[in-house]
Amino acid sequence: MSIENYERKADSIRLKFNSKRDLVNSNSDLNQTAKQRQIDENKAKYQAEMDQLHESYKAEKQQRLSDLSKELFSMTHKLSDTEQDKLTRQVSYRDAVARATATKDGEELSALLRTAQLTGDDLQARAVALVSKEHGYFEIAAEAVGKHKVAKLNELTQLEATLTAPSVALRFNEGSLFILD
Structure pTM? Predict the structure, then answer.
């Protein structure tokens, strides 16, 4: 769900609540206590809808984040790989991540990536992509994942920012706690 779709649905919930609240407030058959009770009941109902929408949005974003991370950085197996081949690749990938993590700077990561590309070492290239992204060397990460996956790397980076940025968290909280007077 896009942020625009999330906001549209949240606005719809707010409008339904406001409409119900206005309807209750205009009901001359109810005293103030009865009006407040109905408004509180409606507020609880629509707050639950808003909370559910918010949780659904966060869960979708977390799932997309996980899917992109796996696609960009996890090791792959061939269908013909035996269990021993898979175990060997796992150990090789762990070693590749350790080598990439042990680098001191972007220059060393670039050199490691060049070596991986020259030798056709896909696991090392993925490890360099992972470590480069984690350390903020986006250009190196982009080169490591390849031109056809840079858009996904961009999406992953933006998605991580939206899930951790205080301004977005504040917007969610305002959407979740939508008490309107």
Answer: 0.66
